[in-house]
């Protein structure tokens, strides 16, 4: 989020009607501003004047590009991404969040719900609709916590043997922020019934949950 408190939003979607409707609706929303729109990720990275706070990414684009490749291209640049799609699958939501997306929302939601999720992603929270979150949990053993991309990045760096300072540098955040992420990760594992208090225990959770793959 910018210093003004306004969240800037770029959209990658070839649905012109949706994008124009969103642009018109956002004129009434003081804290979210649409700053760029393209039909492909390649075009976004080539033409965007400045990186926005959040990228709204349609999962299935008309150019036939691979959805996960599109997402990874943005995640590698440390972009916060909210994926939107007509695909109503808890498994798909799990896949995109594990690949680094900040959230997943199906297109059957209204614009108010979309903006609410944009705000969550901007705050580095994991943004899922209630229905998808419940579907995801139903498909899991229930003991694997949902980590935000930032929490996961710090966890992977720290559990690999780095110091907290080095892990923070690797994740592109300040040491104090990295410490907060680690505390949140530990709290999530504790609530999942799999407490991890030391670096070795965190490394065990990374291995058990296949987070490094």
Automatic annotation (TrEMBL):
It comes from the Bacteria. Keywords: DNA-binding, Phosphoprotein. The keyword DNA-binding applies. Residues 8-122 form the Response regulatory domain. The modification 4-aspartylphosphate is found at residue 58. The lineage of its organism: Bacteria, Bacillati, Actinomycetota, Actinomycetes, Streptosporangiales. PANTHER family: NITRATE_NITRITE RESPONSE REGULATOR PROTEIN NARL, TWO-COMPONENT RESPONSE REGULATOR. It comes from Nonomuraea typhae. InterPro entries: CheY-like_superfamily (IPR011006), Sig_transdc_resp-reg_C-effctor (IPR016032), Sig_transdc_resp-reg_receiver (IPR001789), WalR-like (IPR039420), WH-like_DNA-bd_sf (IPR036388). This is Response regulator.
